[in-house]
Amino acid sequence: MRAVLQRVTQASVAVDGKTIGSIGTGFLIFLGVSDADDETVADKLADKICRLRIFEDEKGKTNRSLSDVDGELLVVSQFTLYADCRKGNRPGFTGAGDPGKANRLYEYFMERCKSQVKRVEHGEFGADMKVELSNDGPFTLMLDSRELFGTV
Q1: Catalytic residues
Q2: Is the alpha carbon torsion for 112, 42, 100, 82 positive or negative?
Q3: Which of the 8 DSSP states describes residue 84?
Q4: Is the peptide bond before 138 cis (omega within 30 degrees of 0)?
Q5: For the chain, how far is it from start to end, CA to CA, in angstroms?
Q6: Is 148 helix (H, G, I), strand (E, B) or coil?
Q7: Under 8 Å CB-to-CB from 33, ≥6 apart: which residues?
Q8: Which of 62, 31, 52 is nearest to 145 (CA)?
Q9: Distance (Å, whole) CA 73 – CA 27
Q10: CA angle 47–114–43, rounded 5-degree value
Q11: What's the CA gap between 117 and 146, in Å, rounded?
Q12: Which residue stretches of 39-127 are H helix?
């Protein structure tokens, strides 16, 4: 799994002009799933993200987690995180997971997050979505389960 995580003061996602998910302070997560991913990978990545300490404390140090700031999550599926741009000018997406499996793991990932975060909003898997955000910092992280946990 791959995630692009942005610390935000607010974020929302819309489909066909209608907002379907929105949060205040928290993380906007763009989540990509590969065929090599499974529930164990989803558990580890969700736990890692929910425990990340990237909110500032009273001394300006990034020592606070989502739970410390009563933060929220907005999770948006994004298969393009598995784009292969090595050849030519048109990205290939064969590294992205089968849509059925990817959707199941996307849903599973969100359920795992819901056990740790009070509010988890989401986009619509496979839809053309419009995402708006106010990046706080800006503070953006890229997480790859293969690099973090040694998974394939």
Answers
A1: 78-80
A2: positive
A3: B
A4: yes
A5: 9
A6: helix
A7: 1, 77, 79, 96, 97, 101, 102, 105, 106
A8: 31
A9: 5
A10: 30
A11: 24
A12: 39-51, 99-114
SS3 113: helix
At 141, the amino acid letter reads L
Residues in the chain: 152
**Tokens (6 digits) for 37:** 């991913």
> 110 and 5 in contact (C-beta within 8 Å)?
no
Q: What is the CA radius of gyration of the chain?
A: 15
Residue for token pair 């990205």: 91
Tokens representing 76 are: 């948006």
pTM comes to 0.94
Q: Could you give all domains of the chain from N- to C-terminal order, each with its CATH number? A: 2-149 (3.50.80.10)
Instruction: Quick: pLDDT tens for 80-132.
Output: 999 989 999 999 898 888 999 999 999 999 999 999 999 999 999 999 999 99
Tokens of 3: 């995630």
